[in-house]
Design a protein that fits this description.
By secondary structure, the protein is mainly α. It is 56% helix and 0% strand. It contains five helices and no strands. The longest helix is centred in the C-terminal third of the chain and has 30 residues.
Length: 134
């Protein structure tokens, strides 16, 4: 045999690797600011609905060994109230962008899903379309 040693680590494919957690990984995961994706506040700016629904239905907690936060009826009601307020603001923004006064209601109702699902980006696109029609 050879006396050379490999620099590659030895591992067994049938054994689960150990989990090592960096010191600030728990706080990053709790704040939603880790490098694994968008933080909740950034996601909210892109789509309020996606930010509200982020993490719903997750069977396992985001950080191993930490219990998953319980979502109560009060949290769900607060989320619905926030989405309702955002939808109402989207309706007003759509009405304000209507190219003619006869289209105000239609553009208002179009503004609700545009605001909820695409946030400020969708409203910007809606404004561009409105300027092209007007």
């Amino acid at each position: 045999m050879s006396t050379l040693q490999s620099i590659l680590p030895e591992f067994d494919v049938f054994v689960a690797p150990g989990i090592s957690v960096a010191p600030n990984a728990i706080t990053e995961a709790a704040a939603g600011t880790g490098q694994s994706g968008l933080g909740k506040s950034r996601l909210f700016a892109l789509s309020p609905v996606l930010a509200t629904m982020k993490g719903l239905g997750a069977d396992e907690p985001a950080v191993p060994g930490m219990p998953a936060p319980a979502v109560g009826a009060g949290d769900a009601l607060l989320g619905l109230l926030i989405l309702g307020a955002i939808g109402a603001l989207g309706y007003q923004a759509g009405k304000a962008m209507a190219p003619s006064s006869s289209d105000r209601t239609t553009w208002g109702w179009i503004g609700v899903p545009v605001t909820l699902f695409t946030g400020g980006i969708g409203l910007g696109v809606m404004g561009i379309v409105s300027n092209r029609k007007g």
